[in-house]
């Protein structure tokens, strides 16, 4: 029996679930500055995916990389949700109103 597809799905499910609170916290504490972190970590993970011969590790790095890339979009949308009042504002930050 081949468990590789199941493991890839489990890894994707877990990483997507973990990235939701990471994006919320990143926007709260860093705002759009966190985008740079997601870009750098995403590209490093992508390079790791391309450089690794083990299929499970390679796909895990790839899934992680694209979760980082998707988080770039989510940080921008999270900022909009904060401005709409659906999430709390960080009192230590200045927000640019639309």
From TrEMBL:
The chain crosses the membrane at residues 6-23, 35-51. Keywords: Membrane, Transmembrane, Transmembrane helix. InterPro entries: DUF4491 (IPR027890). The keyword Transmembrane helix applies. This is DUF4491 family protein. It comes from Tissierella simiarum.
């Amino acid at each position: 029996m081949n468990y590789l597809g199941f493991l890839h799905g489990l890894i994707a499910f877990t990483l997507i679930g973990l990235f939701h609170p990471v994006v919320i916290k990143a926007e709260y504490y860093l705002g759009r500055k966190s985008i740079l972190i997601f870009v750098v970590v995403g590209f490093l993970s992508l390079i790791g995916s391309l450089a690794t011969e083990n299929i499970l590790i390679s796909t895990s790095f790839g899934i992680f990389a694209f979760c980082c890339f998707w988080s770039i979009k989510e940080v921008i949308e999270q900022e909009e949700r904060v401005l709409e009042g659906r999430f709390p504002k960080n009192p230590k930050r200045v927000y640019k109103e639309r």
